Amino acid sequence: MTETLNLAKAVNGALADELEADDRVLLMGEDIGKLGGVFRVTDGLQARFGTERVIDTPLAESAIIGTAIGMSYRGYRVVAEIQFDGFIYPAFDQIVAQVAKLRYRTKGGVPMPLTIRVPFGGAIGSVEHHSESPESYFAHTAGLRVVTASTPQEAYSTLRAAIQSDDPVLFFEPKGKYYTKGEVDRTVVRDLDTANIVASGRDVTIAAYGPTVDTALRAAIAAADEGIEIEVIDLRSISPLDVDTVVESVRRTGRLIVTHEAAGESSVSSELVASVAERAFQHLEAAPERVTGYDTPYPPSAVEHDYLPSLDRLLDAVDRTLGRRNSRTDLDYSALEGAMTAGAAR
Questions:
Q1: Would you please indicate which residues are annotated as catalytic (active-site) residues?
Q2: Residue 173 phi/psi, 5° resolution?
Q3: Beta strand 196-199 with 204-208: parallel, antiparallel or unpaired?
Q4: pTM of the model
Q5: Rounded mean pLDDT of 273-292?
């Protein structure tokens, strides 16, 4: 049986169902209890499960994660919330130096069933440290699972799988999609490893995750009006990357575009393009394209629409891979040539 929920309510439902199913599950974070979180994602959970299981913490991310590590050592399954993406950096040392290493350090003797929820991404009109995409930092760290969700169903199912995992998981929630609605089947629990083909096509592969999956699907609809078939892959897992699914798609389409909100340099798209080139180079009919955020700090909200991957930018990349007219080939070379000729005459 399914129900219609927005993504925020789907996360709330996953947390409630895990709290109900397992007494070892605890929630920790800034303002998650009485207030219900700044996005009201945890609304009502403290009233239902009590202050000892839904815990309001001080404004200290390092302390939140440090405490969660100790509680995980004692057998609890902690879900720690980082209030905003840009607030995760004070906890960076705890996450990459301790959380990621403890299970390996103990030869598997001490599991680390810790889930760290991170609202991430832009499109909410907010300021610096509130609209960032820091997932690549953690995808680079061995010992961490890094996952995200693009729909309410994915949010519900993937979060439940993360909480049930004995590995530490960073769960990146696209805050710009919190109020997007969709059908949710509470009997479905996802794995934490595989990508999902959400639209089939034969001409171009677009790999996306989190908030850009919706943009990729809109590009597929727009391109279909011109007879172009786009295959859209929701990566879901950022670390490990399901390269096999992408490679198999590229072998069919011959073209690859990767899109995400994070900056392009040293990113998930960098890794995926390199992996596909290594394993399917002979199948590529055009150079892979990346449509990402720019290699700058996140801009003021007034111009964030120019920073984020848009439908137009994505369709322009599609045109480039197909050898069609695009923003790069439509430059006014005649005007440039005229200016150069005039300069030479002088």
A1: 130
A2: -100, 125
A3: unpaired
A4: 0.92
A5: 97
